[in-house]
Amino acid sequence: MITSRHIGILGGSFNPVHTGHIILADYLVQFTGLDEVWLMLSPANPLKTGNAAPDIPDTDRYSMLDIATDGIKGVRPCDIELSMPRPSYTIDSLRELHRRFPHTRFSLIIGSDNWLIFDRWREHRAIIEEFTPIVYPRPGYEIDPATLPPEVTFVNAPTIDLSSTFIRRAIAEGHDMTAFMPHGVGRYITSHNLYQPHK
């Protein structure tokens, strides 16, 4: 079978998407063998039950992803998990992508923080064997690339210590986070009154 493309899948709640997400995705497209990186929006993370993050509609988070990736060559949003049963498990999503695009090779992209708990993921061995993960560094979560399985690639991407949690809290405190998010995302948040302090 001829494989036409190699696409990296970077999943997350993107609540909201920030510049760190886009810089990472763009780096992986430009400096690795990936043809594209898809930002796969997750409706719910099974490992984060009880998360106190605000319940922002999937449609708003996807709209922000769409705005954030506009004009970034090789980087696009992916909404496949929004139409799948919940809770959402990565192995199911990756297999569904492969079913829909049988001639495309997919690799899961995860941070070193997630790699350290990867054995808690559903069918983590199957993910390694079928979807050749790409691991990037996260501040405070050091790993030795030499210890990774042969199917796993470590990419020394730039580390950006920025989180959606920080941005949400800062907006709620009245700070202007426009510079921390891709162009247009801050305007969307303001116009849709997202993450604002409770009155």
* Major sheet size, sense and barrel closure: 6 strands, parallel
Low-confidence stretches: none
Question: In sequence order, what are the helices and strands, one letter per element?
Answer: EHEHEHEHHEEHH
Quickly give the structural class: alpha/beta
Number of contiguous helices? 7
Give the overall shape: globular
Mean pLDDT comes to: 93
Tell me the distance between the termini: 58 Å
β-strand number: 6
Radius of gyration: 17 Å
Q: Fraction of residues in helices?
A: 25-40%
The fraction of residues in strands falls at: 15-25%
Q: In order across it, which strands form the biggest sheet?
A: 3-2-1-4-5-6
Summarize the structure.
The chain is α/β, with parallel strands linked by helices and 199 residues long. It has helices at residues 19-31, 58-69, 90-100, 112-115, 124-131, 164-172, 185-191, and strands at residues 5-12, 36-41, 75-78, 104-111, 134-136, 153-154.
